[in-house]
Amino acid sequence: MGSAENSRSAARTAHIEEMRRAERARRRRNRVLIIAASAVAVVGLVAGGVVLLGSRPNDSNSSNSSNSKDTASDAKAPGSPGDSGDSGHFVTGKDGVRTWSGKLSRNHVTTKVSYPMHPPVGGNHNPVWADCNGTVYTKPLRDENAVHSLEHGAVWVTYTSKAQKADVDALAAKVRRTPYSMMSPYENQAGPLVLSAWGRQVSVKSATDPEVDRFFAAYVQGAQTPEPGAPCSAGEMK
């Protein structure tokens, strides 16, 4: 019995010692790997620093390059005064609706924008939209706020002082019944009564012109809307 027990004890001791040797070997390997990885990282950092220093221009050239880049960026930055970001022209369809053929920018700007069409049907615009939840304004809107409303899918009815009062009243009543629409006076336009949506515009002869209903049906939240479902209330009020 004693001999057998001594044999088992010796075997356990030998097994424990073997495990300890294996653990010490594993730790040595880990230390070697860590040291090697650290060395590689240091070499990489040094090499990267050399590349950066070698590619860095002298102070005077760096300053001039930075100034040139800022100047070019400012010159092209959307929102510079007068920059609508639009290009192209209107194409008139058989129904009289004019469709803008070209680019209509959609950047938010806080400056006054000069649009290539009146009323504008798209382009850079103010971050705040004009309330267009069937809203009838008695004073002119800012173009930049109105364009944002068009981006949300609104139809904008505008009229000049030459429009008949009966037509203005009838169109105002229609707008009040129609979410995603708005109305305001606008003198700088081709005809007395104009309807606009994003990228679309039509002049109508009167409030009873069949094109009024067709335009509303097609373009209130129509397929041309860049941001369908975006809010039309709680915007820039009169």
Automatic annotation (TrEMBL):
It holds the Pfam family DUF3105. The keyword Cell division does not apply. Keywords: Membrane, Transmembrane, Transmembrane helix. Residues 54-88 have a biased composition (Low complexity). Residues 1-25, 54-102 are annotated as: Disordered. Residues 1-10 have a biased composition (Polar residues). InterPro entries: DUF3105. Signal peptide: none annotated. Coiled coil: none annotated. The chain crosses the membrane at residues 32-54. This is DUF3105 domain-containing protein. It comes from Streptomyces pluripotens.
